[in-house]
Amino acid sequence: MAIWNLLWLYILILYVNNGRMEASHKVYPQFQSLSAVNIRQLHHTAFHFQPPKNWINDPNGPMYYNGIYHIFYQYNPKGAVWGNIVWGHSISKDLINWKELEPAICPSKHFDIDGAWSGSTTILPSNKPIILYTGVDSNGIQTQNYAVPENLSDPYLRKWIKPGNNPLIDPENGVNATAFRDPSTAWWLNGRWRVLVGSERNSRGIAYLYRSRDFIHWTKAKHPFHSAPNTGMWECPDFYPVSLSSKEGLDPSYMGKHVKHVLKVSLDDARYDYYTLGTYLTNDDKYVPDNASVDGWAGLRYDYGNFYASKTFFDPAKRRRILWGWVNESDFTQDDVKKGWAGIQAIPRIVWLDTNQRQLKQWPVEELNTLRGEIVKMSHQKLKKGHHIEIQGITAAQADIDVTFYIPSLDKTEEFNPSWEDAQRLCANKGSKVEGGVGPFGLLTLASKNLEEYTAVFFRVFKTSKKHVVLLCSDARSSSLEDGIYKPSFAGFVDVDLADKKLSLRSLIDHSVVESFGAGGKTCITSRVYPTLAVLDNAHLYAFNNGDETIIVKNLNAWSMNKAKMN
After folding, report:
1. Structural domain includes residue 45
2. How confident is the model at residue 17 (pLDDT cuts 50, 70, 90)?
3. Same domain for 380 and 405
4. Is 315 part of the annotated catalytic residue set?
5. Can you give the pTM of this predicted structure?
6. How far apart are CA 389 and CA 203, in angstroms?
7. Whole-angstrom Cα distance, residue 448 to residue 451?
8. What is the mean pLDDT of residues 296-300?
9. Is the C-alpha dihedral spanning 157, 162, 163, 168 positive or negative?
10. Is residue 131 within 8 Å of residue 148, measured between CB atoms?
11. CB 406 within 8 A of CB 510
């Protein structure tokens, strides 16, 4: 009983801290090596990436190499909380079915004895992969180190070695040595490699730039690559080009004229990923965000839900840029700790620049479609105020739904108050049960038969004197009857005009996670939920409307999803 008292104390700590860890590197040594117990896994996902058991967090340096996709990830091989961190390693030929290998990097040297933390991979000339990662020594000092494959002829790159000239990059004077981590994928420009390292000083988030001719000897640039006040620690910086005219991905070293650049940082204080679009001033080696692109908490996000510490990579086989993100745990239940796993990765997504050039768009990789089973279709179905219709004939706890809603009239749209800048707060105040003019309408996912439990994913439309304002919500407040767990309402605004009066929504439902893509991937929200009734065959799926205006389900396709081969 003493162990479980400690576990519930841990859960209480998370709950008091708004249901999240204060930092991904906060240590709870009493739980780090707690053994798993075999019980029925009601919330274990079927097609999201996760190891057989135990804690994972940041995806490290995903890459495509010689026909095989690799994902590395922060992994605790001994327990279901953060600690004992190594670089887990799995491989795949299709980004969906995965085989676990032995860890690629484990703490073993003086420079990483207290942690082999996040980093990236880079493919060097002559097709040689290299890992850059953060090591933590016994004094908590963070340095940047490298590892290389022991045997390049091994198609799976199972073993990695740390050469004796580590560390490569030490924190210099003026750099916060305990907040200096997560080196980015490198890029090549004018005879030198360049890499970013995240940091923080006096609450200013910083991306430091380092240059090298040989990838071994690195020199810090005189000025930060980019920084912003009052944003705190910048974890997992990611920097890459996007095409102005195509969905195709670009190599990180591509510097053509018709591109913008993306700088993504993971704000440790907020536990969300933010990005800006801007210009890379190559002569000055500095990044300048566009005027409409805001740094920090008011800026753009990849995902407005449980999504953190993401990393992209260029896939040369299909010429696309792929985004991986950690579905960061909003809470733990006793069930989670007993079964000995916590944390999953979001479905890999392609990412490209929207035609409006103001934001990115995302969509699940096409390989996910290979898991689709039986399809159920619905079209031209009216949803009057207060109505909900069940989508039957699929496994509602394990499904892929793609729906287009048509709004016959926008005359009943509610006025938008200019003070409603915070989408998440607006969703909390105007949830799925709060009747409106146009909306709320959408899906009730992971719902119990009598709607005691459900996670609502829905739109609500407002109007100003100049335009319509569209809100997308993923509201988990009714997701579980269990008390004391974090059940937030997540939300983001959708930058779309309603000239055709249509709104599309795709939701991936996988037992304890709902990933949603609004308006073709303009706004994405991931929710991690823990239903007690709406599990396995007892889960249901409904389309609903609680607005005055009748909504038409113009087209709906729903598939039962097969289980992926997972580690």
Report:
1. no
2. very low
3. yes
4. no
5. 0.93
6. 49
7. 5
8. 93
9. positive
10. yes
11. no
